[in-house]
Amino acid sequence: MPSSVIEAIQQGIWDFEPEYKDDATFEQTTALPGTGAKLEVLAKRLRQGYPLWHPADRRTYRDDDVE
Known about the structure:
Helices cover 28% and strands 0% of the residues. It has a domain at 20-65. By secondary structure, it is mainly α.
């Protein structure tokens, strides 16, 4: 059983969904969408087997949208 999306793709498993992880088990990010910093966070989450998105991630350029 793969532990990350990357491992699943390497094994040819295209419908893999990571195990549910409580939002408290991985940190939110204030990195702006589309930036290198945000991509680094997403890549780290992939390698660690976490979901790509955290509900409190920054979604827009407006600071007041950050939870």
